[in-house]
Amino acid sequence: MKNRIVPACLLLAAAIALAPADSIAGQEAALPAAGAPGLRYEIWVELDAAGKMLHGKEEIVWTNPTQDVVPDMLLHLYWNAFKNEASAYMREAAAESQGVRGPAPDDGEWGWVDLTDVRLADGSDLKPTLEYVTPDGPGTAGDQTVARVLFPVPVRPGESVRLRIEFRSKIPRTVARSGYYRDSFFIGQWYPKPGVYEEGRGWNCHAYHLNSEFFADFADYVVHITVPRGFTVGSSGKAAETRTDESAGTTTITYRQAMVHDFAWMADPRYLKIERDFIAAKEVTPRESQETADLLGLSLDEVRLPDVKMTLLIAPEHKGQIERHFQALRAAIKYYGLWYGPYPYETVTMVDPPFRTGSGGMEYPTLFTAGTNVLTSKDQLSPEMVIVHEFGHGYWYGLVASNEFEAAWLDEGFNTYSTTRVLAKAYGPGALPLNFKGFPVDWFLRLPKVFDFETNRVAAINTVRFDPVTAWSWGFFNRMSYAANVYMRAATLLSTLENFLGEPAWSRIMRTYHMRYRFRHPAKADFIAVVNEVSGRDMTWFFDELLDGTEAFDYGVGGLSSVKVPGHLRGVFDTNGAREEWTGKRIEEAEAAEGDAPTPPDLFRTTVLVRRYGEARLGGDARVEVLVRFKDGTTETRTWDGRARWTRFEFVKPVEAESAKIDPRSVWLIDENLANNSRETARVRRNVVKLASQLVFAVQLVLHFFGSWS
Amino acid sequence: MGVFKAIINGMGTTVRKPRLLVILYVVNLVFAVFVALPLLVLVQSELGASIWGSSVRPVDLMWLGEAVLKYQESLPALLAAAVAGGVLYLVLHIFLNGGIVGRLLDREGPARLAAFAGDCGRYFWRFVRLFLMSLLFYVLTLGVFMQLVSALFRPLDENAATEWLPLILSNVHFLIALLLLSIVHMIIDYTRIAVVADEEKKVLRALRHALTFLRKRFFRAWAIYLVIVALTLAGSVIFHAVLGRLGAAGLAPVVVGLVWMQFYIIFRIWIRTLFVAAQAEFYRAHPY
Question: How many domains does one find in chain B?
Fold first, then answer.
């Protein structure tokens, strides 16, 4: 058929992209030479800045990669989430806000996308077949973010279909991730886009939900963006050509990018555009390369990083923070590259989100939005955190493209964990990010500095009872549970797993997983398989118990005592056929009779009670380690499998115990009560005294404040 | 009387009456220990036997997270108890205000406990009525006037081209609120002084005395108030600077820190009495 093509290179390209790597060796930074095997876009879009509209047309070439015969195509029309209050997004937002007005736009500021024409390349009109569908069930009835078109002839395995779509979109006034404010525009999730076809399961094409991000197939993009002349434009991909139409007063820039699964851009007439180079030879020392290679068991060539062109689009009022942005981006490119694999694209564009476009802190392939304020503190690590995090999504979402609708933890959790590591490595702990009236609080008060893993853990232990980490994005109890579980609890679990398996094994696991599933869509089982394979241990229990489960993990020391072992026991004893009673008085007399005769040293019986307070249990070869320290400085270590509710350890030694501690190597970061992990017999409590005095002081101040209103 | 003379005279009065400071400090400390006791027990029970107790930081997120998790069911009750404690302290302070103002206006006489207690009882109900009246002023100031200011600023904010304008507007709004509150606070202070100095039984009449007094010399009176506020801020900056420089290791810095914090509380209480003493000096210098 005319509208179907079977590229000669399809099988080869598919083999390159889909074949799992046997090991982490031999991976290159470069993109697959053949580009995306099954999907290509060419899009022409014009921004009507005055009317807040987009006028576009696109050509989509989709190749059926499965053995299924496919009769239709499901398309995401994400901006219809902002069309009315019947969309799944708005309904979920209303439910979340419980009567308080949610993110719904004001009158006249709704956003939407209309498909004005849908045809195959042979001219067949598909528009009459177009219907809105609700693949996520009746709860999303009325939603128009997924549309379905029927092909006149089903697409057979390996065949391709070429669609030509014309669309016009009303840009929303800032709802989520996309929108306009005055003449600033951030344009994401803006074009009609097919779902991901999964063999035997059909189209994976979910509605736009409040608590969800996105999922799409890798594709090659050519995008022609037309904006009013004078606008600064930033976009995914690499600018290939710029044309100016003097009569129309417009500029058209063509961007190209292979092997990405989304494409976003921004336009603003005031923005500054600055370019810098990440020069790997300057950023990574030979020693760092060697240490990484040794840790991962790779050659120096395999850990060598490529140079990257970095572009920053920044608001003029943030001009003073330009170098700060680049410094954070350099750290991110360096450490993600060293740890997980080289960044494979030539460019990365960092966008300081246009004011009030609601677009901050969001990732797109080769482009991300950061976020800062005019008043910042160098100690608060903002904007650094968001820059590292959103660039990191280029790895966890951009390259390892898990389904964010169904397994958000696989990108958000992995990336939060990775962000924590990069920030700790590059910056150390940061001050708590507190602001008052736009002023960083640490300008005036000394705030404690914390590592992100600490804040992650606080959220993790407080959210476990709501949902499993692995729930689908819109199935979480509420938005807080979604965020705390998929970001922070998942990150805390990964940190725990790292502690448990040790840095060498863990580093290889992460590298292997990343490189093996680059340009693919792995699921939880794929990661578990890599963990088990590389570590050589069956860690399936960990995921079953702690990611799929909703039970608390808490082991603790239930008791510690050291008592002198008496020389004689009291009671009635049968000795040499005679029965005699040892009374307290008789024991005293016997001890007095021993007088100055040399006696063996006193013995002490130390008893340590270890308890499992939580419902979650250790599994596999994991053990609770118990370290008992004695007053002469000696130590004893025992282990327990932790399956039962409690166990008891006894030691008889000529010295009293000083303390008992479980998990002395601080492996189980996910343990929700670290205070009960240890007990001491002595009571030196300098810090408790300090804490108590500060508490009283705080109450005194509050009372004084109350009193001053009398 | 000039601004600084009123303040210096006020300082002299407070220095001559150290017992006032002692009474107020003891009340504050005892009440605080009472309110904090449940939390202190909690800290001791959680960390008293743990090795973590030797390394926990004053604001230790890891431990606070655990405490929130463990005691989240009790948090509303704790919060309610704290608010109840605050309200109780407020009532107690209304009671104590009689003694504070009464003894400070008696410039030369010593602040004997019996006289202090007598003043507390004598003026209590008048000050209760004044407090209720002050609530009306605060509601009018924050709830009505500041809403009008917000409405005035809103169109500017909504059309701001950059974040600078909202930031400035927000801070100007906050500053206006603070200045208005300081004026209301000052009016209430002078009314309290008028009740005692003029032996006025009717609070509304005392308020009229205060307003008449302030109408004639508003800016000087406000300057006294603001200079003492500036003194408070300066003292707070010094307090935090010194506290931040105390070492973390060893028992000595803990003890020094504890003592330093109590000095700061005494300083704040002294400032509170200075407000009354300086304003009383100023009021007395210009009889109604």
Answer: 1
Could you tell me the CA-to-CA distances from B287 to A204, A290, B212, B214, B216 in Å, in that order? 84, 85, 11, 12, 12
Token digits of residue A264: 């976003």
Tell me which residues of chain B, numbers 85 to 124, contact chain A at a CB-CB cutoff of 8 Å: 85-87, 89-94, 96-97
Interface of B with A in 25-84 (CB under 8 A): 28-29, 31-33, 35-36, 39-40, 43-44, 46-66, 68-70, 72
Return d(Cα A271, Cα A234) in angstroms, integer.
10
Residue A121 resides in a domain? yes
Query: Considering only CB atoms, which chain A residues are within 8 Å of B96?
Result: 707
Q: Which residues does chain B have within 8 Å of residue A691's beta carbon, measured at their own beta carbons?
A: 43, 47, 56, 58
A226 pLDDT above the threshold of 70? yes
Residue B52 belongs to some domain of the structure: no
| Segment A236-275, tens digit of pLDDT | 999 999 999 999 999 999 999 999 999 999 999 999 999 9
Give the tens place of pLDDT for each residue, B182-220. 999 999 999 999 999 988 899 999 999 999 999 989 999
Q: For A409-466, how does the pLDDT look when each residue is reduced to its tens digit (9 = 90+)?
A: 999 999 999 999 999 999 999 999 899 999 999 998 888 899 999 999 999 999 999 9
Does position A14 have pLDDT exceeding 50, yes or no? no
Q: Please check whether residue A87 lies inside any domain of the structure.
A: yes
Tokens for A239, please give them. Answer: 């600018």
Give the one of B56, B69, B174 whose C-beta lies nearest to A462's C-beta.
Answer: B69
Between chain A and chain B, the number of residue pairs with CB atoms below 8 A apart is 184
Number of domains in chain A: 2
Residue that is written with structure tokens 């994401």 in the block: A188
In a domain, A566, yes or no: yes
Contact B253, B246 (CB under 8 A): yes
Query: CB of B135 within 8 Å of any CB in chain A?
Result: no
The whole model's pTM is what?
0.90
Q: What is the ipTM of this complex?
A: 0.92
Contact (Cβ atoms closer than 8 angstroms) between residue A319 and residue A274 = no
Among the partner-chain residues B49, B62, B262, the one whose CB lies closest to the CB of A457 is B62
